[in-house]
Amino acid sequence: MEGETVPAARTAANKATRIALGVFVAGTVVLGTALFLVSQGLIKFHPKQQYCLTSECIEAAAAILSKINQSVDPCDNFYRFACDGWIYNNPIPEDMSNYGVYPWLRHNVDLKLKALLEKPISKRHDSEAVQKAKILYTSCMNENKIEKADVKPLLSILRHSPFRWPVLESNIGPEGLWSERKFSLEQTLATLRGQYSNSVFIRLYVAADDKISNRYILKLDQASLSLSSREDYLENTTEAKSYRDTFLQFMVDTAVLLGANASRAESDMKSVLKLEVKIAEIMIPYENRTSELMYNKMNISELSAMIPQFDWLGYIKKVIDTRLYPELKDIGPSENVIVRVPQYFKDLFRILENERKKTLANYLVWRMVYSRLFNLSRRFQYRWLEFSRVIHGTTSLLPQWDKCVDLVESALPYVVGKMFVKAHFQEDKKEMMEELTEGIRWAFIDMLEKENDWMDSETKRKAYEKAKAVMAKVGYPQFIMNDTYINEDIKTLKFTESDYFGNVLQTRKYAAQSDFYWLRKEVPKTEWFTSPTTVNAFYSASTNQIRFPAGELQKPFFWGTEYPRSLSYGAIGVIVGHEFTHGFDSNGRKYDKNGNLDPWWTTGSELKFKEKTKCMINQYSNYYWKRAGLHVNGKRTLAENIADNGGLREAFRAYRRWIREKRGGEEEPLLPGLDFTHNQLFFLSYAHVRCNSFRSESAREQIHIGAHSPPIFRVIGAMSNFEEFRKAFSCPANTSMNRGPESCRLW
Ligand SMILES: [Zn+2]
């Protein structure tokens, strides 16, 4: 792939050469400028450096050219310099509230899954599980049938306890009439959670015990509300008020569509909204949800003594289906649970005991109705779209196929995952991921040893041990290849092509019960349970793992070995570094190399760490995001900002080592038509991962509920702190991309 060697005569190769020549002619002016810059010493030009003219290099050069806007000064706003071209050419689709390179790749994965799921069933070649996935997809695509069924499947739920809906009175028949005497909060909450996987007020789930990370335990947390952010309920801004008004009208109209009387619906739903506002007030905000504060281990009888208004044991026993898990029949008052938000639960039951039962029932059933609306006929979804217009700014519904792919993917992640991996994942990607993860590990440790001047030697040694122990998981978990295991795992699911709504309910029940499977088992610390089609990467504190599913390992994040390494180190390399650094961010640092929440820092080093985070909190809090009309919350986004900054430094260092060790210090051949060095391409490649535009509604939501800074500041923030960036682009002091001595750094 080096130099100007043109591949032997093949039609495709010849075509590539013609394109290359075209790019070359067009690039003459650019090259002229480059030569001038080189003569001025602004670009370092290795005399031996040549151009790479393979079709891969030409493809990469074209992809980069199409994204950038060279009329923007990279030292003024590198995000706009890198992304303006892409953003201009990729307006946000009507059915989305934001759009960028990540969502674009997500969409490409969806298209591939669509093609796989639409292939006719082959009784001979498709496993039982694959047949189920295709049947579920087909049932979802049968829109005539869904239209014909209209509201019937939902009404049949609303006619029976515990989902009789007070607001409907007897308008759906006398059997649907709600009775206060028969209402049970505990039963309704338990059915929502245990049969429909809907967590309302309380979120009950199984996860690793933070302090004994090889054991599973029950955890209790606060649940989400109908609207995505607490601020939507609490603020008195014009936006928040209009969200609440629109939301109220949406609830009222939905109730009316289901048979309620309009004025009755109006007054009932007003009470429901008031109740949700009260719940929003007592929810623990993200910044105060620290690992130590949320670790409150007690047994159920202690919990019941603390909050006596609710039958906790009765609730938990009703949620878990012991026909599926007979070993869980022994759950009793001595069962341990981790209560993540004790104050929230105390406040919650104080509110609930003073609330009218009718309002409670109206609210709980509303949440059930709300999550099933998308499985009804078009008129319900169009009513939702009116609501979404205001809340998300979207003006059209997701195409049915996209909705159906999402359904199958979330219901059967490992089945769909295997289909995807078999068709689209190249095993040799694992090799380069090994090179990248080991490079990042080396870089983190090298900087810890040579550049970290604030940590004492004792804490450094522990950090070193933790860095050594980080385990990388790449592509897909091995167990998905085992058909017997997968068929067994989903044996209770029996889909039919003609019953979409019934199929969905089965998937909800399956999802609701699946985590209880683990309760009495040991945590398989070397396994991972991430869906392979996920276009994202993760760090898991309890297993000290970094995870990169197949969906993430694609262009423009992961470039193969035929492309310049600068592109991969800048994109997936920084992502690897980002996940790695999560083990040492403001929260991850509290977990030790074995994944236990166990303080391993000396007081001195911890104080210095906290002192240094202040710089980053201030830096990001000062960023004003025009699209949202709000400032970034530096405290809320701290952990992610630490990961971004660390990841960028580690990947750059790892790239330079690769050049040193694998190429004897010689730079990679340049890309045609671009006058960028590979150090510059590294930074461009990172920024390109982040190109994303937002509708103002979505921007506002991102600030309120997002853990990450907005993409523009993920680029500007980390790069302006990094001396290698300013060197690469020769950014003078006092430009916004060069924070100079003001730069913040943790790792
Ligand atoms: Zn992250």
From TrEMBL:
Domain Peptidase M13 C-terminal: 536-742
Domain Peptidase M13 N-terminal: 74-477
Names of the cofactor(s): Zn(2+)
Molecular function via GO: metal ion binding; metalloendopeptidase activity
Transmembrane feature ranges: 19-43
Gene Ontology biological process: protein processing
UniProt keyword annotations, A-Z: Hydrolase, Membrane, Metal-binding, Metalloprotease, Protease, Transmembrane, Transmembrane helix, Zinc
Domain of life assignment: Eukaryota
InterPro entries xref list: MetalloPept_cat_dom_sf, Peptidase_M13, Peptidase_M13_C, Peptidase_M13_dom_2, Peptidase_M13_N
Any Gene Ontology CC annotation: plasma membrane
The protein, known as: PHEX Metalloendopeptidase
The organism of origin for this protein: Alectura lathami (Australian brush turkey)
